[in-house]
Amino acid sequence: MNLLVTGGAGFIGSNFVHTTLRDHPECRVTVLDALTYAGSRASLAAAGDRITFVEGRIEDVALVDRLVGGNDVVVHFAAESHNDNSINNPSPFVTTNVVGTFTLLEAVRKHGRRLHHVSTDEVFGDLELDDPERFRETTPYNPSSPYSATKAGSDLLVKAWIRTFGIKATISNCSNNYGPYQHIEKFIPRQITNVLSGRKPRLYGEGKNVRDWIHVDDHNAAVWAILERGQPGGYYMIGADGEQNNKAVIALILELMGKPADWYDHVNDRPGHDLRYAIDATKIRQELGWRPRYTTFREGLAATVAWYRDNAAWWQPIKAAVEAKYAKHGQ
Ligand code: NAD
Ligand code: DAU
Questions:
Q1: For residue 64, what are the contacts with CB-CB under 8 A and spacing of at least 6?
Q2: Residue 158: is its pLDDT beyond 90?
Q3: In a domain, 281, yes or no
Q4: How confident is the model over 263-283, as pLDDT tens digits?
Q5: pLDDT at 94
Q6: 63-98 pLDDT, tens per residue?
Q7: Based on the structure, what is the number of domains in the chain?
Q8: Is 180 helix (H, G, I), strand (E, B) or coil?
Q9: Span 114-120, mean pLDDT?
């Protein structure tokens, strides 16, 4: 199988490439990535010359047409992915997430290729802390931030292309990932690298917001289950029953890193901050037999702390700039 992986130099995409080379050596992998601030060739260094890397944008009609035409399957990770950035400057989110996905869809339609669209649970909005409901495949869309609105827009385009044009596409909506190669603007790697740099972790507001954490390898195993066994036109929720509030996550990071439990600062909250995400992954478990391998958050988090400790050369050069950007917003 010839696989085109968009966003393969980002967090989840680069882990997907490494998983694919290890577990599916029969695949030929081409990565299309614009190498924005979030993408890094260093994240693909271990792949060496076993992949073809193309630097370019998913809104580039001619480039996308050529690459989609030359591959069997497109796995679409490329996106602007950070909520805080979308609040400060929404424009690239509309371009990449909406126009970029549209461009891919048109090429997929023209060439009759298979597409898997990687999306997020944030398209469903948020839940009350005590709501017994969790997000399912049938939950109505209700996004809150510019990021999640553009991801919702991209999902709806894929759904329309499935229904109207009959393209062979699947969609997955996953909860919060953590693991190696995650950009240090994101919550967990920001706090780990803060501690490694002698800085206190930074908690937005009171830290009561809940996220449903999943290790990136478990997410990518679910994407592979969909590629191999998913129903064409099917939608799948991906989550590993990993609900934690932000305060508890910081407490665990501090414990794993040998710091006192109160060694963190409260900083400005995120405007419109979603309260809680929670995934009901019954469908993918029952229909595709997928199960997460990381069954305790502590185990996955400890491995992630070790990765950032061992790979300081990957994140240290950008740490000061990331923190300077947050400081402008009192975060
Ligand atoms: P990321 O920001 O780490 O990586 C995104 C990659 O896309 C980068 O390599 C970047 O250079 C590339 N890119 C951005 N704009 C591009 C463009 N116009 N053309 C080509 N490449 C471009 O993101 P991530 O956290 O790895 O997320 C990957 C996908 O998974 C996204 O679609 C995101 O919405 C989705 N998702 C993420 C999470 C999470 O917790 N991180 C959870 C669920 C779903
Ligand atoms: O739910 C899936 C989504 O998870 C993905 O679609 C997004 O691409 C991904 O970035 C993530 O979005 P969040 O906004 O939930 O993740 P983030 O890491 O930015 O923040 C996680 C929580 O931690 C959130 O409640 C805000 C809080 N936070 C974040 C940072 C950066 C802090 O308390 N302190 C921080 O320094």
A1: 32, 58, 103, 104, 107
A2: yes
A3: yes
A4: 999 999 999 999 999 999 999
A5: 98
A6: 999 999 999 999 999 999 999 999 999 999 999 999
A7: 1
A8: coil
A9: 98
In a domain, 311, yes or no: no
* 10 C-alpha to ligand 1 centroid (Å): 6
Residue 326 lies in a domain: no
* Protein residue whose Cα sits closest to atom 19 of ligand 1: 57
Domain that holds residue 100: 2-183+213-243+277-296
Residue 83 CA, ligand 2 centroid: distance in Å: 7
- Kindly tell me if the per-residue pLDDT of 295 is higher than 90: no
**Among the bound ligands, the one closest to the CA of 123:** 2
Q: Which of 126, 147, 155, 308 is the catalytic position?
A: 147
For 239-253, b/e burial (b = at least 16 CB within 10 A) is bbbbbbbbbebbbbb
3-class state of residue 29 by DSSP: strand
Q: What percent of the chain has pLDDT over 70?
A: 100
- Residue of 33, 59, 80, 122 marked active site: 122
Q: Which residues line ligand 2 (CB under 6 A)?
A: 81-83, 120-122, 175-176, 186-187, 190, 202-204, 209, 211, 246, 270, 277
122 classed as catalytic: yes
CA 256/CA 254 separation, integer angstroms: 6
Q: What is the CATH number of the domain that holds 84?
A: 3.40.50.720
Q: Is 176 helix (H, G, I), strand (E, B) or coil?
A: coil
Q: Which residues pair with 115 in a beta bridge?
A: 74, 169
> In the numeric block, which tokens belong to residue 257?
């890193």
Nearest-atom number in ligand 2 for the CA of 185 is 31
Within the chain, strands assigned E span: 2-6, 28-33, 51-55, 73-76, 114-120, 168-174, 177-178, 202-204, 210-212, 214-215, 235-238, 243-245, 265-267
- The binding-site residues of ligand 1, defined as CB within 6 angstroms of any ligand atom, are 6-7, 9-13, 33-36, 38-39, 57-59, 77-81, 96, 100, 118-120, 151, 174, 176-177, 183
